[in-house]
Amino acid sequence: MGHNCSALTGDSGKKEEMSKVKIISTSHVKPGKMIGRKECQLVTFDLPYLAFHYNQKLLFYKCGEFEEKVEKLKDGLRVVLEEFYQLAGKLGKDEDGVFRVEYDDDMDGVEVVEATAMEIGIEELAAEDGTASFKDLIPYNGVLNLEGLHRPLLSVQVTKLKDGVAMGCAFNHAILDGTSTWHFMSSWAQICSGSNSVSVSPFLERTKVRNTRVKLDLSLPPNPVNGDANQGPQLREKLFRFSEAAIDKIKSKVNSTPPSDSSKPFSTFQSLAYHVWHHVTLARELKPQDYTVFTLFADCRKRVDPPMPESYFGNLIHAIFTVTAAGLLSANPPQFGASLVQKAIEAHNAKAIEERNKEWEAAPKIFEYKDAGVNCVAVGSSPRFKVYDVDFGWGKPEGVRSGSNNRFDGMVYLYQGKSGGRSIDVEIALEAGALEKLEKDKEFVLEV
């Protein structure tokens, strides 16, 4: 287990980590021009995420000249927010109690926190498997999206490190998904690198995809449970790095005998999804008759009818589920599990999306983690996001990670691998005992 243990040793270890990060100042950044009053109703795709936590991303860069870079980031932010102004707004409700994003020129805008952590170095962050030492580098730990009613929808913490800069971002997940998050981040980086304008404007008309007005009677719980309260088993996270060679090996193994019903070959995603699902299920030592659920958060921009542009700004994702018994998953060849994943994805067409939305609108249900399913493996983010291209003018990031929010037993985040090409980074949160077994599973780790 190596250095992971230290991150979890009681409170004294935590306090020591805490003291490394010192907040220097907090300011707010608004769009560089007057925009006036704007209101945009949240739609059926957005609403289920109101009780998720803010979505946290951490990027770290090797570079110096901290103060200069913070000013450059703020200047770029003023420009990029002229188009992505919804991020500078707040959540609100209209007279019928329907949630919406509201923007007005007198709102605070995006929160920018400046901090220093001169004892933390880039190498240390790059080597970190868990998220314990990231916690203080990213704002809004354990904060629910619903709190966007009275706090910024985006908070950015820029921390000066021993030999670089860490950029921790907390995005309100009720107003945007991963595709929109990285569209915003790459646009911001483009401006900071010298572009005068955003190359692809965000498509802000959410109601074009769905216009049903859903009233939700939602208010914050009296004492929101903090994200890291000790509920249930002790979770550990680990980053598994799969090289191109490992990804190719996984894909060719899953495709070695084509599925009987002559469906398409399995994609990289489907092959990797099966690989993770299968090995996590083994590591959990489930009984053959125990059910295990595989969940993925699928981008629906091209699935809806009519399709929406890639630049659609909002949440246009659905959680797609498939389930089988642990015994069937392990006793059958890889094609069995991969076919379950493939069929679930292919079945989620415009008609299925329409039915799901109607069903939800008739009886709205706000997601919480425990809804992901029994013995679940849930995959979020995507290796297709060009996270290593987010260059603000001082080079590509040395690392891109998720924060500690929105993690539960079985949550998996996929990222483009640092080495580029077809390599993929797989971040997994699991109950500590199961994670230890997974780390020792040679067939899973595949050190090619």
From TrEMBL:
The keyword Transferase applies. It holds the Pfam family Transferase. One of its GO terms (molecular function) is acyltransferase activity. Keywords: Acyltransferase, Transferase. The keyword Transport does not apply. Belongs to the plant acyltransferase family. PANTHER family: BAHD ACYLTRANSFERASE DCR, FAMILY REGULATORY PROTEIN, PUTATIVE (AFU_ORTHOLOGUE AFUA_3G14730)-RELATED. This is BAHD acyltransferase DCR.
